Amino acid sequence: MDNNTKRTVVVTGFGPFGEHTINASWVAVQELKKLGLGHDVDLYVYEVPVEYQTVQSLVPSLWNQYHPQLVVHVGLSGMATTVTLEKCGHNYGYKGLDNCSFCPDSQCCIEGGPDCIDSVIDMDSVCKRVSASGLGVAVSVSKDAGRYLCDYTYYTSLYLSQGRSAFVHVPPLGKPYSGEDLGRALQAIVQAMLDLLAQSEDKIHCQHGH
Question: 88, 109, 127, 150: which is the annotated catalytic residue?
Answer without folding.
Answer: 150
